[in-house]
Amino acid sequence: MGHDSRAALAREAKDKQGKRGGLKESPRWIEGCERIAETAPSLPDTRLVYVADREADMIALMMRAQELGTPAHWLIRSTHDRSLPEGAKLWSTTSEGEPIGEIGFTMGSRHAVKAREVRQHVWLRRVELPAQKGQSVVATCLVAREFDAPAGVKPIE
Q1: What does pTM read for this prediction?
Q2: Tens digit of each residue's pLDDT (9 = 90 or more) over 48-75
Q3: Where are the domains of the chain?
Q4: How far apart are CA 40 and CA 47, in angstroms?
Q5: Main-chain phi, psi angles of 16, to 5 degrees
Q6: Strand blocks (E) in 22-135
Q7: Of 10, 111, 144, 157, which has the fewest Cβ atoms less than 10 A away?
Q8: Are 145 and 100 within 8 A, CB to CB?
Q9: CB neighbours of 11 closer than 8 A, spacing ≥ 6?
Q10: Angle of helix 26-39 relative to helix 59-67, nearest 10 degrees?
Q11: What is the pLDDT of residues 106-128, one digit of tens each?
């Protein structure tokens, strides 16, 4: 990706109300995925992963990645607890049963909150997400949920 492409994908600053101006971001997330897919054939010995935050939790992006044959993996921080075909919800379905393991890390200080140790249980499940017109997207959902959080602290998930 050249320097011009990265500049085109840069985000607008937020205004006083916390809103971003400029173009709608959804086409940018999809374009970013397409650029990674174009790069993948030139790097056959490299595992490419397209990482995106909650703003990219869009079925349109997932559908496009699937259409491209997923030459790169994609990792999107979920914001929508989507309904599954059986009517169950994504996050609760993924975290049913025993976790596959646990992780621990130090969460750095931020916004006047001291750094602290975080321990999370991890669940993993392959799911089929409903998409438009009877189509679906196959994805792996990972839930990491904090346990033993300090009193009065919202657990990290």
Answers
A1: 0.75
A2: 999 999 999 999 999 999 999 878 899 9
A3: 1-80, 81-157
A4: 8
A5: -65, -25
A6: 49-52, 73-76, 101-107, 116-130
A7: 111
A8: no
A9: 20, 25
A10: 20
A11: 999 988 889 999 999 999 999 99
